[in-house]
Amino acid sequence: DAYGNTTLTIRAVDDGGTARGGDDTSATAVVALAILPVNDAPTFDLLELDAMVLEDAGPSSFAEFAMNVSRGAPNVLNEEHQTISFLFTAIPGSLLALAAGPGMNIAGQMGE
């Protein structure tokens, strides 16, 4: 995950040798290379794989449900400005039907 500018020097060398005054190496060419940053996928770890609530409990909240939430590669400046959101979907055929999924903030708190 590095980006920035660098310079390359390039020479071509053949296997013809230098016998009888031959020359097997070209002149040096210089190339400026700009490596542009790309968007890295956000990452997170789940503290618990299962969240349990009673069927009539109503809205519930789980602190630190997700941990180590990152916008992308650590210590890379082009990721800092991005906003993270979480998308929850019910597994097809499960008992849970979500009219609207639960929310989760960047601190990893899931709930209301």
SSE layout and pairing:
Elements: E1 4-10, E2 29-35, E3 43-46, E4 66-70, E5 103-104, E6 110-111
Antiparallel strand pairs: 1-2, 3-4, 5-6
Sequence of secondary-structure elements: EEEEEE
Distance between the termini: 36 Å
> Which bin fits the share of residues in helices?
under 10%
- Strand % is 15-25%
Count of helices? Answer: 0
Structural class call reads: mainly beta
DSSP summary, beta strand count:
6
Give the spatial strand order of the biggest sheet. 1-2
Overall geometry comes to rod-shaped
Radius of gyration (Å): 27 Å
- Contiguous uncertain segments of 5+ residues: none
Largest sheet: 2 strands, antiparallel
What value does the average pLDDT take?
78
Question: How would you summarize what this structure contains?
Answer:
With 112 residues, the protein is mainly beta.
Structure description:
By secondary structure, the protein is an all-beta fold. Helices cover 0% and strands 24% of the residues.
List keywords for this structure.
112 residues; mainly beta; two-stranded antiparallel sheet; 6 strands; 0% helix; rod-shaped
